[in-house]
Amino acid sequence: MAGSLNANAGPRYRHNADESAPYETITLDKLTPILGAEISGIDLSKPLSNRQQDEIHRALAENLVIFFREQHISQDQHLAFGRLFGDLHTHPAAPSEPGKPELMIIHADKDSPRANGEGWHTDVSCDLEPPMGSILYIKKCPPKGGDTLFASMYAAYEALSDRMKTYLDGLTAVHDGESVYRGLYKNFNVADKPEYPRAVHPVVRTHPVTGKKALYVNRGFTRSLVGLPRDESDAILRYLYEHMENPLFQCRFRWQENSIAFWDNRCVQHRAMWDYWPHTRSGNRVTVAGDKPY
Ligand SMILES: O=C(O)CCC(=O)C(=O)O
Ligand SMILES: [Fe+2]
Question: What is the ipTM of this complex?
Answer without folding.
Answer: 0.99
